Amino acid sequence: MKFDAIIIGSGQAGNPLSSALTERGWTVALIEKSYLGGTCINTGCTPTKTMIASAQVAHYARMGKKWGVNTSGVSVDLPAIVARKNAVVQGFRDGQQRRVDKHPKLRLYRGVARFLSPKQVQVGDEILESDKILIDAGTRPAPPRIPGSDSVGYLTNELLMERESSRLPASKITGRFAITSSGDF
Question: Residue ranges of the domains in the chain?
Fold first, then answer.
């Protein structure tokens, strides 16, 4: 299928660009392998700031005495914080989907883009063509390569924001490094 433009990735540049081009009458293919919104909405700014806001409220409540406010029994409900974060992220994703749906000249393809030539991209079984292919591919966690780390497990930013327990798993790496953790943070 031929398009005026193909945009790979629906992040902070891909979404507004796809909207702007379709508003100019262009036919646009937007390719996204995961969730609409890219890193910021899904695993970066939006979820981290949402969780930090909850931590800030807990901090202020615990420090109330300093400001003449008596508080007691302040506790953190991490599953509720994670659920709130997930609801905020889903709201942003839904907003992105509504914006995509309103443009009749914009076609969303879910999957991984693979270049076949300088003017052809394949997504699943479909071959897309355009003279203009733009890449807004985003990020993903890249844990450091430490010998033995693959056998003990680790937390990335994405995994950490899904945890509903503040207890860190105990782990150990043999050799020069020993990583252990216990208790609540």
Answer: 5-135, 141-185
